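Assemble and predict.
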Amino acid sequence: MARRIIQIDLNRVEGDLDFQLELEDNKVVDARCIGSLYRGFEQILISRKPKDSLVITPRICGICGTAQLNAAVLALEHIGRIPVPPTAIRIRNLCLMAETVQSDLRQSFMFFTADFCHSKYIRRPFYEKARAAFLPFKGLVHRGALEYSRHIVEIIALFGGQWPHSSYMLPGGVTTPASSRHIIDSLSILNKLTRWFEQTIIGTDLDAWLAVQSADEFFTWLTAKDAHADSAIGLFTLMSRDIGLQHVGFGTPHMISYGAYDDPDDAGTFPPHRKHLFRAGFLNGDTGDIEPFEQAEITEHVRYSWFQPYSGGRHPFQGQTIPDYQPHSDRYTWCKAPRYQNKVVQTGPLADALIDGEPLIRSLYQAEGGNAWLRQFARLHRTARLLHKMRETLHELAAQPNQPHMISPDEKEIPDGEGFGLVTAARGALGHWVQITDGVISRYQVVTPTAWNASPKDSEGRHGHWESSLIGLTVDDPDDPVEIGHIIRSHDPCLVCTVHLLDTGKRITVWP
Amino acid sequence: MGTRNIVCFGNELHGDDGFGSRIYAELRRLTWPKDVEVFNAGIAGLNALRFLENCSQAILVDAMANFGNVGEICVLRPEDLADRPQQLTGHGLGLPYLLEALKVIREPLPDILIVGVEIAAVTPFSPGLSDKTEQAVPKTVQLIRDLLSE
């Protein structure tokens, strides 16, 4: 039996992430997801003034800094029971959506679909179309994604002064009102992107696309017109299914969503009880039921992580992050292992859509399960929903001019206590847990979407979601495992995925 | 007529990888003609396209690997990178990727030169340059001034 180890480096903007896979006769028999870069943000925040988190935590990520900022401010508002006006919630939502739209378009068409241009597929019927659409810097869709995705975050710059790493959300609201100029400029940016999305990505108008609500309707839609089949989402679907991505990459059946975008009509309710525009919940993969989400059910394990050991799992309010690098032990990562109800879970746009009850994604899931194609499809489907919701939000802001964008808190300082902020970032469930003692931060715990998905094994030896999504996969050529690239990228790890073989030192890229 | 932009790349937390940021700090202390703008792109990746949108000329400053002896200063044109896309030390997707992306969003391209130094090592979480790389800083600054005075 031929046994070998391959290591895959996932070079991310905000940190390094690797996979180490063991193959037996070309089948993945074990997987280790390795966070190879210690960040230390939680320690940096200790003993600082609470509002420092609004400047420091957006720097956790160059892609989802708005989501980090929102989680940080919600945690402080939770502690201080600080009210926020509806206009501020709308501006926060608008900016969060803009950031997610950019991330999703780039993930889809600058990273995921480029793999269809791999020379392995040269004899596939779709190959020429794949190159015409998705070849980096040459393909029409790749070029369009590069051009159009970069402008959408200008909306955040309008309201936040800069992007990335902005700090315009403060306890009580945001720093800038929704002036008519900002609204008009935002609509102009949004319209330009929406037109491209309709013409190139979905081949129809947004409303018609969002009206497709079941698997049968979708597959009928796909073949109804050449414009549908030749659209980016049509090509992506046909190519994915031609190579069988609907049959691989399932991972754990359990999913969580913190819910997305606070409901401005429920602004009078303090977080964490404020309603969301997209619902929170836990999809229990054993029963298929969607249960209410309860943050108290979250724990983090460090049995296989390079942190000072503790037994079992701890809720973030009891969390401990003391680095303890042990390179020659069975510990293998700087990531902790978050669990919900002591279960391995996944998060991201597929989980969000299913838990929110989005009919098309739910129908496709019921037909084939949470496979690699559907995970990526759900991400693109979300873009359509968000473009629609962003327009709605801007119209709401325009309809209520001169409304307050900030309610200055009665107290200048955030009081002692504990609170949390839970949001949906582009990659899924993001949470900040904060405790304030004697006026300064005494504990700060961040659980990112990638911590959920890229989790190592836990105290009971159970693999994390990404790891389990690869175990059992057969690759045709271990020297060029493009299949692994498809699955890993369906989870949105971000950037170029390179592979090198430990046994030969030979370096190979999965990038086409 | 567009501006002439100097765009410096690097991560100052990672040893010699911070060469571009080190150069930026030096360049900021100098007086420049009105049409010259100096930017620290850090590890901005694709977001650095913003610094190259409207200029007529650009000098990109970055750390380099496998272009010469440690401490050696190199001046390259984008086409020199065409067949060695992975050779520069990568910030996000790296300069070659950024230059390919630039071709998509603007035509014609600005006149681009890449100024770099062959570095000793990228050392995670070790701020400060190695001796040989540090020694290349004054010459690099002078070279950039000369390039913009031509």
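The longest strand of chain A covers residues 3-12.
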